[in-house]
Design goal:
heterodimer; A: mainly alpha; 73% helix; globular; B: alpha/beta; Rossmann fold; six-stranded mixed β-sheet; 10 helices; 14 strands; 34% helix
């Protein structure tokens, strides 16, 4: 099975690395680099007093974590099966000596690798653009890698969930959008353990906390009640494994019909 | 002889729509053609025997093994689907190379087999062009190539001659016949009788999801020939033509469309009718503008056979 996964991975990594969709998402990811460059130039002219680290954390939360990883995972995850159905290319895969689970896992890994490359190249570059100065220490380098690891883990979790949605539902995009940008955002405003029903909660638990507020308008702010980092990382790993297994099982036993 | 493909009591529905019903079929090595009009159930049958679909009732076995979710069978089986679908951004060579690599062949083996398959379907010259730039005939040929590239014992081809020009059709027919010579089992579907006649004499007639008849081409021809044919002739001498042929014993009915100078004959002996018509034309007794056969299609024959 491992070899079968590798074969599917190689095929889809090659196939999608030059697809227009990948190019478009690569450009989107690099919008953060452009933004970092603009801010840095502004900063060098003395018009920005915030430190690079703080600015990057804001970009990390608002762009990378709440937008980019969700959108990348949504478009690539849901397409693992639906693109084969929409393009009617599924018979080319299902008539090869491949376990159906290997098709799902191989494609998942190919898309995870592609999207991670986009994400991490953009995240690391923006981080270094904003943070590299005379005060840059070794610990800041570690922080950059830690952010990358958290983003990769988040991407893997979302991608796994959306892959499951793609194998299960006929039209997974709407449900995926509602989950990624509806549920995942709204649930974070709820205090208590409800917010633990989102992937974003565990990701934020692994990052430095900076959004706290109290007073009359406190309810407008996200009230993160973080889980312990080890627990958060373990839950994210479990999410990856659980939904990937579920997707592989569904794809193995479900019969897919073309719309004709 | 042991059957290579065995379908036992296969039935399949799509919601309320019947795909195939109670199909029992044993297929031996050689070329077997599934002949039936569009929507007859040929593709459903092929999808079931290639493990793309599950039957609602019954089972299918290839080389004694079940097919659904049995990936090992695909080393010995090649499938050319009917749909015109590809990974359009790949070149013809890349398409074959990557599909071959999914079998676990090494890079060198995949390359060699891809080159050979391209040669067989005569696409070597355009192998580096993206599939999206291929003509309909080229796309059909590259689709056939992916089914044969790994040199399988069993080849299932769903409407393989669709969209091919006459020359390409002849090449593909020759290729399929060569596979037969190598002892392979080939199942081909078509809705065009002359195509099937050119390929094989072993035909399975399928209609409305059921196997209507099975036999060699001569048996099928007999069935078809016993069906009254309508022949529409446009001629300035249409009345004279009707008068001459009215006395022939093989003419069942004659009707006219005087505004169009058309006479329509119904005959149960097409060959005798055309022999006599040739004599009349050669003897300059009548001139003919146009001859068409309004029901000379498989659907009409099938409707007749099922008593519609």
């Amino acid at each position: 099975m491992r070899q079968e996964i590798w074969r599917v991975f190689s095929f889809y990594f090659f196939l999608r690395k030059k697809s227009p969709k990948t190019k478009a998402f690569f450009l989107l990811s690099w919008a953060a680099v452009l933004l970092a460059l603009v801010i840095r130039v502004y900063n060098l002219t003395g018009n920005w007093t915030e430190s690079g680290q703080v600015i990057f954390q804001n970009i990390l939360m608002s762009f990378f974590l709440q937008f980019l990883i969700v959108i990348l995972a949504l478009f690539y995850g849901t397409s693992v099966v639906t693109e084969e159905l929409d393009n009617k290319t599924l018979p080319y895969l299902s008539s090869r000596p491949l376990a159906r689970a290997a098709i799902v896992i191989g494609k998942y890994l190919a898309y995870l690798t592609l999207t991670t490359l986009m994400l991490i190249s953009a995240a690391l570059l923006s981080y270094f653009i904003l943070s590299l100065d005379r005060d840059f220490r070794l610990i800041d380098l570690w922080a950059g890698f830690r952010y990358s690891l958290v983003l990769t883990l988040g991407l893997a979790a979302y991608l796994s969930f959306f892959t499951f949605l793609g194998t299960w539902l006929k039209k997974p995009m709407m449900v995926g959008l509602a989950f990624g940008f509806g549920w995942e955002s709204v649930i974070q405003y709820f205090p208590g353990s409800t917010q633990k029903l989102s992937i974003a909660h565990y990701l934020k638990s692994l990052l430095p906390q900076y959004t706290t507020s109290s007073g009359k308008l406190g309810f407008l702010f996200i009230r993160l009640e973080p889980s312990r980092p080890l627990v958060a990382a373990a839950v994210l790993f479990l999410i990856v494994i659980f939904f990937l297994i579920l997707a592989a099982l569904i794809f193995t036993y479900k019969e897919y019909l073309f719309e004709d | 002889m042991t059957a290579i493909i065995e379908a036992l009591n296969l039935s399949r529905w799509y919601g309320n729509v019947l795909g195939i019903s109670e199909v029992n079929l044993e297929i031996q090595p050689g070329i077997t053609a599934l002949l039936g009009p569009n929507g007859a159930g040929k593709s459903t049958f092929m999808k079931i025997i290639t493990g793309q679909l599950k039957p609602n009732i019954g089972e299918v076995r290839i080389l004694g093994e079940k097919v659904w979710n049995n990936r090992h069978i695909f080393r010995r089986l090649g499938f050319c689907p009917e749909v015109d679908a590809f990974y359009e951004e790949l070149s013809g060579f890349e398409f074959l190379f990557f599909l071959l690599s999914l079998y676990g062949f090494t890079t060198a083996e995949s390359r060699k087999k891809a080159e050979l398959a391209l040669e067989l379907v005569e696409l070597t010259e355009v192998k580096d062009r993206q599939i999206r730039s291929y003509s309909r005939g080229m796309r059909q040929r590259i689709k056939i190539a992916q089914a044969i590239a790994h040199n399988p014992e069993i080849i299932i081809l769903d409407e393989p001659l669709n969209g091919l020009d006459p020359l390409s059709k002849r090449r593909i027919i020759k290729l399929i016949k060569e596979f037969k010579g190598e002892g392979k089992t080939i199942v081909v579907s078509s809705h065009i009788l002359p195509e099937v006649e050119a390929l094989t004499s072993e035909i399975v007639l399928i209609h409305q999801g059921k196997i209507l008849a099975r036999g060699d081409i001569y048996f099928i021809r007999e069935l078809i020939d016993s069906h009254p044919h309508m022949i529409r002739i446009k001629s300035p001498h249409f009345r004279q033509l009707a008068k001459i042929l009215a006395g022939e014993d093989y003419i069942l009915n004659i009707s006219f469309k005087p505004q169009e100078n058309v006479v329509i004959f119904e005959t149960h002996h097409r060959d005798r009718f055309f022999n006599r018509l040739n004599e009349l034309i050669l003897g300059s007794l009548v001139t003919i503008d146009e001859i068409t056969s309004p029901d000379d299609n498989l659907q009409a024959v099938f409707d007749y056979l099922v008593g519609k």
